[in-house]
Structure formats: structure tokens, C-alpha cells
Amino acid sequence: MITDVVYAMGGASGDSGGAEQGSGAALLSSLLPLILIFVIFYFLLIRPQAKRAKEHKKMLENLKKGDKIITAGGIYGIIESIDQKTAVVKIAENVKIKVSRNTIAGQRTDE
């Protein structure tokens, strides 16, 4: 009876090197799906988001007076003046608002 338990545990074979290699392969095979999921998330979520953030930062750096923009809140306007952190946006005749430069969602090409 004891020999059955020892044999089931792998202690009776006398080949401890094979057991260590088997556990290494088991570890790799158990981590492989986790690694694969991380790689898929990287290429489907993280990388495209970083690319969009880089493009948005470049767009914000290239803004100038007279550009037609839309803010993150959905306000359409034309830039009257711009500095490092803020922009004055004309949204109607005699109506200007001061917005944070980071709230500018993008430039618009339509009217």
C-alpha cells in the first residue's frame, strides 16, 4: 500500500531529473496561455491606444490661431489665441471661451 503511494508520487522511479524536466514543461505549458493573452491584449488594446495618444499630442502641438476645432465636450469653435496650457475659442459672434488645451478633441475640416 505504501509503495503504491510512493510510486504515484514519482519517488519510486529513481529518475529525479526527468521529474524536474516534466515540472518545467508543465510550468511552461501553464504559463503559455497567460503569456499569449498578454501579447494579444498588447497588440489589440495597448499599442493602438498609445498610437492614438501620440497622434493627439502631436495635433495639440500643431494647433494655431484660426484652426477649427471640437472640444471633448462637443463644442465647435475657432481658435482665437493659444498658449501652452489654454486656448481662447470663439464659438459664436462675440462669444469666446477659455478652455484647457488638453480638452481639444480634434481639428475639424467641415463647416
Provide tags for this entry.
111 residues, SH3 type barrels, 5-stranded antiparallel β-sheet, 25% strand, alpha+beta, rod-shaped
Structural class: alpha+beta
Succession of helices and strands: HHEEEEE
Q: How many individual domains?
A: 2
Proportion of helical residues: 40-55%
Q: Distance N terminus to C terminus?
A: 87 Å
Mean pLDDT figure = 86
Unreliable residue stretches: none
- Net shape: rod-shaped
DSSP summary: helix tally: 2
Q: What would you report as the Rg, rounded to the nearest angstrom? A: 30 Å
Give the spatial strand order of the biggest sheet. Answer: 4-3-2-1-5
Task: Give a short overview.
With 111 residues, the protein is an alpha+beta fold. It has helices spanning 2-9, 16-61, and strands at residues 68-71, 76-82, 86-92, 95-100, 104-107. The protein has two domains: 1-62; 64-111, SH3 type barrels.
Your description of this structure?
The chain has 111 residues and is of the alpha+beta class. It has a 5-stranded antiparallel beta sheet, covered by helices on one side. The chain is built from 2 helices and 5 strands. It folds into 2 domains: 62 residues; 48 residues, SH3 type barrels (Roll). It is rod-shaped, with a radius of gyration of 30 Å.
Helices and strands in order, then pairings?
Elements: H1 2-9, H2 16-61, E1 68-71, E2 76-82, E3 86-92, E4 95-100, E5 104-107
Antiparallel strand pairs: 1-2, 1-5, 2-3, 3-4
